[in-house]
Amino acid sequence: MIFAKVIGSVVSTHKDPKLTGKKMLLCKEVNHEGKPMGSYHVAIDAVQAGEGDFVLLTYGSSARMTETTKDSPIDAVIVAIIDDVQITKKITAQK
Fold this sequence. Notes:
By secondary structure, the protein is mainly β. The chain contains no helices and five strands. This is Ethanolamine utilization protein EutN/carboxysome structural protein Ccml.
């Protein structure tokens, strides 16, 4: 899974019938603090995300496991809108 920020939407009049009715959003990868990184993804929205939302994406075969994306020709899906990321500074394991 990866962190991303929704930066826009993708509109397509002609597409595979299994994509009809699915909202496609343009997402930019970000780090855990929300700072932009390099890659962009077009993801199907499974959680009613919108522009500006900090989201969690999954891709590959896992992206086709939600109710919204089941049996659809997709490679990325938004599976959560992130409220907060907590990082513990305490070391709990070492090699």
